[in-house]
Amino acid sequence: MKPLRLKTSPDIYVLEDFLADVVEGSLIFPNEENQIFRWKKELTVRLIESLYFGYPIGTFVLWGERYRQTSFPFSTLTTIGGCTVEGGEGYSCIVADGFHRTTAMVGALSNGRADSNWRVLFNLETEEFSLDDSSPHTYSVHELYGNRNLFSLCKKLESEGKKELIEAAREFYDRLHKTRLSVVRITNGTWESAKEAVRRLDLCL
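Below the sequence we write its predicted structure tokens.
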């Protein structure tokens, strides 16, 4: 039997939609031994910083166009970045490459509350990211990224007469919500062939 030629297509994913699809179970991860988050917290900070300043963060590889969750030949992760994956009745694609980046983004932006291990801070005045900053102009990126959180924060800043910080907070929100992620979709083959494609990609880097 001749080897199967994989069909791939480039695509663009809006960051906001990408994260929502992960939490809602439309983009999923197999529950395999290598799917353990091993990044140090500083790497998560660097990743969010790269998103803000427009640095490329690499391409995400997705396997499948539309597959029913019940048809997967393996179990899938039920939590990503401290968030529970909803896993609804819809259709899903599998993220073949991008586990650590996705986990860090979901953790910091969707789950980075004050009591969270995923908390990343941003100084609205200096545009610096950190894990620990006592400056009065520093807020968690989770607080700045969420629509309701940002609205409450802007009202608070307005009552304090800090209009320049309001503009900085809105700038942060706009930059991240307009971020586009590079995606390659593998639309045929098996899960094993998708993993082989990722292994070959790693060899080329």
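The first strand starts at residue 8 and ends at 14.
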